[in-house]
Amino acid sequence: MNKILIANRGEIALRIMRSAREMGIKTVAVYSEADREALHVRYADEAVCIGPAPSNQSYLLAEKIIEACQVTGAEAIHPGYGFLSENAAFARAVQAAGLTLIGPTPEAMEVMGNKLSAKAAALRYNIPMVPGTEEAITDLEEAKKRAVEVGFPILIKAAAGGGGKGMRVVEQVTDFEEQMQLAVSEAVSAFGDGAVFIERYVQSPRHIEIQVLGDTHGNIVHLFERECSIQRRHQKVIEEAPSSILTAEIRAQMGKCAVDVARAVNYVGAGTVEFILDENLDFFFLEMNTRLQVEHPVTEMITGLDLVKEQIKIARGERLSYQQEDLQINGHAIELRVYAEDPENNFLPDIGTLQTYNTPKGNGVRVDDGFEQGMEIPIYYDPMIAKLITYGQTREEAIHRMIRAIDEYQITGIQTTLGFGRFVMKHEAFTSGNFDTHFVNKYFNADSLKNEEETEALMAAIFAVSALKKEKMSGSIALQQESTSNWRKNRINK
Ligand code: MV4
Question: Which end of the chain is more exposed for a tag (fewer CB within 10 A), N or C?
């Protein structure tokens, strides 16, 4: 494999290219008209424009991407996450064109792309699952009987949904019929597939996922867990590895289950098996994501592996160079997704130019980003600016390092989730490890960042006054002080 094409943009395209370059592999970028000046285009050895800004006219066009391979002589495609990364039809088209997809087989994508077929595959290996229906609901009365058996509240899920889309909580049996009809028509319009099923609703779950790697020789290992319980509206904001709640025993059990789920579809490549953990520390399989995930860096930090290099080696047909017993957790890592969103305004996406953009540096800090100062955040794509990852020997050290890194991060021109990250890092529920997926709703509101801002504003005022005093004493020092007070002012915008 001498040359690979990266069918993605932003931080993940850069991140993949960096690993490829370290392996002596040439890289080809593809880009839309909105990304002409993007860093991933500049970083690649070659770049091909594949269409206008909207992703359905560029990054989602399978033919354009395959054509770009043929034009440049790229032999393999890394799809990153999102876009075409879990599209079985794309995986088939890549194969048919005589190219290699750095990822799982189309068959594995298909089975895991539907929650009911995913559960059916997992059932063959006796994986714990939330009580509910194992098939799509066809008979309303039968379903209602099952719901009563399972016990309310229950959750209606769309088989074709994923990542929280198409879910509905039903509190009591008298609401069942109405909610069921709404769920089906929603599923039809959102996914073109009205298949729905029910599960008992786990009220205060923690979201824990296991990273797996499978090679083309039938070897499958897991790389332990990531916890992603701090999310809002099904969008993860903070992830960490390991989880603060798992015991070594549960970790081993979950790991084994994840490997079995992967084995059920002869999984090849990097994948993630998602579980929820209830108050009794019982865990249940939910779904499998057949791609490299946004939050993969925390796993890299605690295992010392480069997941993209592993993916490439697997795609080249190499065997995994380690067994499960060789792998261990070292230290603790936390990731904060820095979104161009305003936490004080219901996390509304914020658009604009990165007037100031300075990333934190130093020991144990990793920033995966795709922007530079002066660049505009395009409105066409995901509003994630960067991933800020900190590593420490202990969870406490990783948290303190995250706070330090957030304080160093300077972004002006747009609102970001940095201040929200600081709020979480300092919150007792998070530091004690006593939290669940309802953290944001339970503890965070628009006023949560107010106190912090007032302190910062006060500090800025003190700086300004002292600058003014010094200005009276000497004109030359005043200039220096003025820049300090500006920096303070910028910090308030975070
Ligand atoms: C659940 C659940 C509770 N009970 N299933 C959300 C994402 C998708 N992968 C599955 N998800 C969930 N499935 C049962 N039976 C809780 C979640 C869930 C969640 C639900 C509501 C609000 C936020 C959530 C965050 C993580 C998981």
Answer: N
